[in-house]
Amino acid sequence: MSIDKIFSELEYASNHPKELMKKYLDEGKKVVGLLPVYTPAEIVHASGMIPMGIWGGPVEIDRAKEYFPAFACSIMQATLEYGLKGSYDGMSAAIIPCMCDTLITMTQNFKSGVKGIEMIPFVHPQNRKIEAGVEYLVTEYETVKAKLEKICGHEITEEALQNSIEVYNEHRKTMMEFVELVPKYLKTVTPYKRNAVLRSAHFMKVEEHTKLVKELIEELKAMQPEEFDGKKVLVSGIIFDQKEILDIFEENNIAIAYDNVAQETRQFRTLVPEGKNALERLARQWSNIEGCTLAYDPMKKRGKMIVEDVKRLGLDGVVYALLKFCDPEEYDYPIVKVDLEEADVPHLYLEVEQEGGSNEQIRTRVQTFAEMLA
Q1: Beta carbons of 366 and 248 less than 8 angstroms apart
Q2: 266, 351 in Cβ contact below 8 A?
Q3: Residue 329 lies inside a defined structural domain of this protein
Q4: Which domain holds residue 65?
Q5: What is the three-state SS of 232-292?
Q6: Backbone angles phi, psi at 368, to 5 degrees
């Protein structure tokens, strides 16, 4: 398959999750929605059902205003808006991790407003480095597993769970290989195309996505590394997937060479560790995640990790994409800012949200950043 054809398929999947869900339902499969951020897709996969990410999207917020205050994060507002309008109709369940105040309230808002889709909540322990935290998360996963078993109508076996972990670890390795390859091919892998590869992973069957990305990697490796004459940046935040904004970066000859984004690399850079019990392995993965706003870190490693990647890859700067009204991200920014300044790494602070609107202010800020880096 040609590289253009591979990108086309991944872009389609990235932009048309509802059509993909209909395809899965027409095949007789049950679909389970996974809300952000670290929701255990392996348990759903082991059940034989299809896990699909739910990350909101561009929509005018109307009915969700009856449930959320105006200062709630736009991903949750958009997600609920889509749910209230029937976009998720056909899903058997939605799993919601209670990782922040808005996600906690989302559990009850979803349960109250979105009919016909079972809501399955669970809680990640924030004190996650101790054995009690691992044990607690195992019990949470056991509850999720039991509820999924009622939906799929059969036991989710240990063998199936172990197999699903290996399938997803293979996908993680493949995605990290792609991400590490991108800086060598920044003319071909534009900001929008890069995001489409990563975003489509939330909607496609994992085996199909792994296969396509492996083909893409082979096509890229067959090419000569490209000389990019613009500026290369790392993006950090919760989500950064709006085509209009990604195109603004391309217009200003700024390539997104790497990321520290919750919807992107943070989803797959941490493998599920080896172990005898599948749910314990999944719980220990949560213990091993680093550099994320939503994973409690008293050492605040995120900024230093970003600086390390910038230096390692020879990048020109960082874009801190703050999701509007996201308290954890707002708390992190001053600390990350200090780390960047101490390392003499230029950075651009952008406030983003999913509700539609003008991007002219962002365009001006990106243009100014491009001139500053020149």
Answers
A1: yes
A2: no
A3: no
A4: 25-159
A5: EEEEEECCCCCHHHHHHHHHCCEEEEEEEECCCHHHCCCCCCCCCCHHHHHHHHHHHCCCC
A6: -65, -40
pLDDT means per 10 residues, the chain with 374 residues, are 96 97 97 96 98 94 94 94 96 96 96 96 95 97 98 98 98 98 98 98 98 98 96 97 96 98 97 97 97 92 98 98 93 97 98 82 96 92
Q: How far is CA 80 from the centre of its chain?
A: 18
Number of domain units in the chain: 1
Please check whether residue 203 lies inside any domain of the structure.
Answer: no
**Could you tell me the CATH number of the domain that includes residue 48?**
3.40.50.11890
What is the spatial distance between Cα 306 and Cα 319, in angstroms, rounded to a whole number? 11
Residue 71 in domain: yes
For 279, phi then psi, to 5°, come to: -65, -35
Residue pair 30/327 in contact by the 8 Å Cβ criterion: no
Q: Tokens 């059902």 appear where?
A: 49
Residue 254 structure tokens: 């700024």
Burial of 273 from C-beta contacts in 10 A (0-12 / 13-18 / 19+) = middle
**DSSP string of 25-55, one letter each residue:** HHTT--EEEE-SS---HHHHHHTTPEEEE--
CA dist., res. 334 & res. 354, Å (int): 23
